[in-house]
From TrEMBL, chain A:
GO terms for cellular component: endoplasmic reticulum membrane; endoplasmic reticulum-Golgi intermediate compartment membrane; Golgi apparatus. The gene is LOC113106914. The keyword Repeat does not apply. This is Transmembrane emp24 domain-containing protein 7-like. It is found in: Endoplasmic reticulum membrane; Endoplasmic reticulum-Golgi intermediate compartment membrane; Golgi apparatus, cis-Golgi network membrane; Membrane. Keywords: Endoplasmic reticulum, Membrane, Signal, Transmembrane, Transmembrane helix. It comes from Carassius auratus (Goldfish).
TrEMBL record, chain B:
This is Transmembrane emp24 domain-containing protein 9-like. It is a single-pass type I membrane protein. It comes from the Eukaryota. GO terms for cellular component: endoplasmic reticulum membrane. Its main location: endoplasmic reticulum. Keywords: Coiled coil, Endoplasmic reticulum, Membrane, Signal, Transmembrane, Transmembrane helix. The gene is LOC113114257. It is found in: Endoplasmic reticulum membrane; Membrane. Residues 163-190 form a coiled coil. Residues 56-177 form the GOLD domain. Belongs to the EMP24/GP25L family.
Length: 208, 244
């Protein structure tokens, strides 16, 4: 019983996670996320702006003391790895305060520690067989494939949103320009007509 | 704690006779242990953020079809007296709404201060998961913010391997291979979705191309036609005025 609880303990504290979220950041807004991290854990923060304006955002990462570990302005994509120097709540914020009217969609992936093992630490005491280590290396390779796929998907989403934007803009602009052309040409003619109408009355008055 | 009692009972009742049985018992025990730990999984603090009383927070998940998503959340309310965040009161719940890419609501439910929502996508695309608190009384929040711990697992990550191993009675190697198979399945689905998205992108670009081409021709024709009309109209106007 005691042995069972002893096994549980190290796995329960400093539980390791990866959080991946995509959210919308309205203009002049700031969104902060917090996570409690134990000392010595290797963490990675990756973010990418998916849609909106010039596709850039301000990012800032602070440790529990308030020391800024990472600060970048107007960045489109970045990846930052750090090791937690102390226990506590780490905070990272994305800011769109420099933008006046564009909403941004931001994706971030915050990985804390390594992935939880498929089996508890009991099996790590004995060495892995060749088959098992082959499986582990394939698993790691597939994880990086999935990661690349995600980044590709985000970039493609960015390209696609720009293309759709362009398409609607072209449609509106062509209708708008046709309308403007007609209005301008008709008003030109009417204006010219009005010039000549006035002159005629003044010349007759002068004559008499 | 009930699980721990169950475990000790199992250990005592299973009397291993041979080394093989011993290994089998150890294996089962290991799996139950992992199962237990996965229970703890959902209650451990993860990423959190603050949400205002009437604020609605939305998250976007762009996923292929037939993908399962499991979301876990836990809320805490700021207690002014103790100046810390404590688990929220009973009356406070969160309203979870999930919309599919066609803006159709596929999940719209109210959960308590702690909840777990699961849904499977039927169309590929951007799904929107929105959360907001169901509180209408300002007194509950006392001008503070609600702390929401959120964890969203997509696709392969939703699989509970301990459960699968226990149900299908898989050895460690078989479980690892199973995990690899799930991962490859997810990659394949994503690639398929990628092909569909690329097709949409190509259609949009071709539509823009056509529109630009069509518009330039029409604009030239309009200009020429207007030019003719203007000259003809003015000529007849001046002839009528006996100026030409």
């Amino acid at each position: 019983m005691a042995w069972f609880l002893l096994l549980c303990a190290p796995l329960m504290f400093g539980w390791i996670r990866a959080s991946e979220l995509t959210f919308e950041l309205p203009d002049n807004a700031k969104q902060c996320f917090y996570e409690d991290i134990t000392i010595g854990t290797k963490c990675t923060l990756e973010f990418q702006v998916v849609t909106g304006g010039h596709y850039d955002v301000d990012c800032r990462l602070e440790d529990p003391d308030g020391t800024v570990l990472y600060k970048e302005m107007k960045k489109q994509y970045d990846s930052f790895t750090f090791t937690a120097s102390r226990n506590g709540t780490f905070k990272f914020c994305f800011s769109n305060e420099f933008s006046t009217f564009t909403h941004k969609t931001v994706y971030f992936d915050f990985q804390v520690g390594d992935d939880p093992p498929l089996f508890p630490s009991e099996n790590r005491v004995t060495a892995l067989t060749q088959m098992e280590s082959a499986c582990v290396s394939i698993h790691e390779a597939l994880k990086s494939v999935i990661d690349y796929q995600t980044h590709f998907r985000l970039r493609e989403a960015q390209g696609r949103s720009r293309a759709e934007d362009l398409n609607t803009r072209v449609a509106f602009w062509s209708i708008g320009e046709a309308f403007i052309l007609l209005v301008v040409s008709i008003s030109q003619v009417l204006l010219l007509r009005s010039f000549f109408s006035d002159k005629k009355t003044t010349t007759t008055r002068m004559g008499s | 704690m009930g699980y721990v009692a169950l475990e000790s009972l199992r250990m005592r009742s299973a009397r291993p006779t041979g080394s093989v049985q011993m290994a089998a018992v150890r294996m089962q025990f290991t799996l139950y242990l992992v199962f237990l730990l996965n229970i703890y999984n959902s209650f451990v603090s993860s990423l959190y953020f603050h949400i205002g009383e009437t604020e609605k927070k939305c998250f976007i998940e762009e996923i292929p079809d037939e993908t399962m998503i499991i979301g876990n959340y836990r809320t805490q309310l700021y207690d002014k007296q103790r100046e810390e965040y404590l688990p929220a009161t009973q009356g406070l719940g969160m309203f979870v709404e999930v919309k599919d890419p066609d803006e159709k609501v596929i999940l719209s439910r109210q959960y308590g201060s702690e909840g777990r929502f699961i849904f499977t996508s039927h169309t590929p695309g951007e799904h929107q998961i929105c959360l907001h608190s169901n509180s209408s009384k300002f007194a509950l929040f006392a001008g503070g913010m609600l702390r929401v711990h959120l964890d969203i697992q997509v696709g392969e990550h939703t699989n509970n391997y301990a459960e699968i191993a226990a149900k299908d009675k898989l050895t460690e190697l078989q479980l690892r291979v199973r995990q690899l198979m799930e991962q490859v399945d997810q990659i394949q689905k994503e690639q398929n979705y990628q092909r569909y998205r690329e097709e949409r992108f190509r259609q949009t670009s071709e539509s823009t191309n056509q529109r630009v081409l069509w518009w330039s021709i029409v604009q030239t024709l309009i200009l020429v036609a207007i030019g003719f009309w203007q000259m003809r109209h003015l000529k007849s106007f001046f002839e009528a005025k006996k100026l030409v």
